[in-house]
């Protein structure tokens, strides 16, 4: 099948494609979860500590260790444990989690100009490159999280490990990493047109009637005004003779009333009021 040029496809809607919206929403949410997972000291918790109250437990993260109780979540932090921080997984997790956060920010700086919500057509190559960076950032988050979970019971510490439990940072890290992987993958598939252009919100030009002329302005609407120079009709409901049309039509003048005469005798003679 011959390869089609980009001019033979047309956007169905002027709105931002759904795959770009999905990626630009999921990735920032995943970044916030990963940031919380990185800085919070709760990758695992140690309960039932010897010679301590029953409600006291130790929270261990990749940067800090805190002692807490059921009534006070941060009783004492900055505890020293060289054995715990000397584990290889801790050093790897510190590097990968920080690198993942930085890579996500770089991906956002690349993807935002590619998405171009304020223009008609996105730059799919730039947006796809940003999606690839998001995908790699999510993978960099999942690797230390999964590794730490796998050896949760074997991470050495000076504190006796009688009851080891998974901390909330592991859960947040999994969710954040999955968000970034899904968002980055969905944005990356926009580089190539697949499923008949549905991933980009496009259709072939020949499938849309009149799409080849969609870039042209419609012709101005013609308004017809009725002509006033109409031929006078020779037919009439009243018959006139030729002679009657040529003659002047004279109208009789209104006659003034006759002068009023009072027949009154004055001195033996008739009296006229007008005299």
Report on this structure.
Strand 2 (44-47) and strand 3 form a beta hairpin. By secondary structure, this protein is an alpha+beta fold. Helix content is 39%, strand content 11%. The mean pLDDT is 76. The longest helix is centred in the middle third of the chain and has 28 residues, at 88-115. Helix 1 packs antiparallel against helix 3 (88-115), helix 1 (18-39) packs antiparallel against helix 5 (168-188) and helix 4 runs antiparallel to helix 5.
> What is Rg?
48 Å
Structural class comes to alpha+beta
Number of H/I helices: 6
Please tell me the overall pLDDT. Answer: 76
Based on the structure, what is the oligomeric state of the protein chains? single chain
Order of helices and strands: EHEEEHHHEHEHEE
- Number of beta-strand segments: 8
- The separation of the N and C termini measures 124 Å
Shape: elongated
Strand content: 5-15%
Uncertain parts: none
Mind describing the biggest β-sheet? 4 strands, antiparallel
What is the helix content?
25-40%
Strand order of the largest sheet: 4-3-2-5
């Amino acid at each position: 099948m011959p390869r089609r040029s980009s001019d033979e496809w047309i956007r169905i809607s002027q709105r931002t494609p759904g795959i770009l919206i999905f990626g630009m929403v999921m990735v920032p949410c995943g970044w916030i979860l990963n940031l919380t997972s990185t800085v919070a000291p709760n990758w695992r918790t140690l309960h039932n500590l010897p010679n301590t109250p029953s409600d006291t437990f130790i929270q261990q993260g990749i940067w800090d260790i805190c002692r807490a109780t059921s009534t006070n979540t941060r009783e004492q932090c900055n505890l020293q444990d060289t054995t715990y921080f000397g584990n290889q997984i801790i050093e790897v997790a510190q590097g990968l989690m920080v690198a993942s956060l930085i890579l996500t920010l770089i991906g956002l700086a690349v993807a935002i100009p590619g998405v171009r919500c304020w223009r008609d057509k996105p730059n799919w190559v730039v947006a796809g490159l940003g999606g690839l960076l998001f995908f790699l950032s999510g993978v960099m988050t999942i690797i230390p999280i999964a590794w730490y979970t796998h050896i949760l019971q074997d991470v050495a510490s000076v504190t006796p490990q009688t009851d080891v439990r998974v901390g909330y940072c592991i859960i947040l890290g999994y969710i954040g990493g999955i968000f970034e992987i899904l968002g980055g993958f969905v944005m990356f598939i926009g580089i190539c047109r697949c499923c008949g252009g549905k991933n980009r919100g496009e259709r072939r030009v020949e499938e849309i009637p009149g799409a080849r002329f969609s870039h042209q302005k419609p012709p101005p609407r013609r308004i017809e005004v009725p002509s006033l120079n109409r031929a006078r009709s020779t037919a009439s409901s009243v018959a006139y003779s030729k002679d009657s049309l040529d003659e002047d039509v004279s109208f009789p003048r209104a006659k003034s009333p006759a002068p009023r005469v009072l027949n009154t005798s004055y001195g033996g003679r008739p009296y006229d009021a007008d005299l």
